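INFO  loader      accepted 1 record
INFO  loader      residues=77
INFO  predictor   begin
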Amino acid sequence: MIRLKGKGIDTRLFFTGMHKQKSLKDFGCVSTKNYPVSNWLEENGLYLPSGSNLNSSEIIFIAGTIDKIFRTKLGII
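INFO  predictor   done
INFO  writer      dumping tokens
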């Protein structure tokens, strides 16, 4: 997220799993089960810019920036 922000791409954390949301607990939906995928996404997922106001060049820039970050991280470039 820091690297994307440095390139002018706003992001935010993904979500809180439904089994942890206060509103559902307040409604009586309490789960004692473990949801490892939901927990992983909560810790590692992120939202990227989206919406009908993005133009093609912005989408290409965002995708290219993500590609470059991962290629650099993997030592491909």
